[in-house]
C-alpha cells in the first residue's frame, strides 16, 4: 500500500509540471523571404541576401521572440564573390502558423518587417 501511495504522489507531481517549451521548426515563407528551421537553427533567404538563425526560436508571452544570427547582404556580379557576414538580432512574434520578424544588423541596418506562414514557400525575386 505504501508503494502505491508513493507511485500516486509521483504521478500527481508529474501532472502539475508545465510542459517544457519547444523550439519552432519547419519551413516558413512569405513575400521576399523564406526560413527553414531545423533542430533549433535556421537558414534565411531574402530577395538579395541570406542569413542564419543561430539559436532556437522559443516564443514567450504574446508569442514574442528574440534570437541572434547572421545577415549576409547579396549583390549582383560574378560567381565566386566573397560575401561578408554581419551579426544580427532577430525579433518578432509567432501567432499560430504566422510569424512576423525584423532584423537589426550590427551596422545599424534594420531589415523588415517580414510576414511568413508555416508551410508556405518563399516568394523570392533574385538579384540580377
Task: Report what the structure shows.
This protein starts with a helix and ends in a 10-residue tail after the last strand. The mean pLDDT is 83. Helix content is 11%, strand content 46%. It is globular, with a radius of gyration of 20 Å. It is built from one helix and eight strands, in the order H-E-E-E-E-E-E-E-E. The protein has one domain. It has one helix at residues 2-15; strands at 26-30, 33-38, 41-46, 49-53, 64-73, 86-95, 98-105, 110-118. A hairpin with a 2-residue loop joins strand 2 and strand 3. The protein is mainly beta and 128 residues long. An eight-stranded antiparallel barrel has the order 1-2-3-4-5-6-7-8. The longest helix has 14 residues, at 2-15.
Query: Helix/strand/pairing class, anyone?
Result: mainly beta
Would you identify the regions where 5 or more consecutive residues have pLDDT less than 50? none
Q: Mean pLDDT score, rounded?
A: 83
Order of helices and strands: HEEEEEEEE
* Anisotropy-based shape: globular
Distance between the termini: 76 Å
Question: How do the strands line up in the largest sheet?
Answer: 1-2-3-4-5-6-7-8
User: What profile does the largest beta sheet have?
Assistant: 8 strands, antiparallel, barrel
Tell me what portion of residues adopts beta-strand conformation: over 45%
Instruction: Indicate how many domains the architecture comprises.
Output: 1
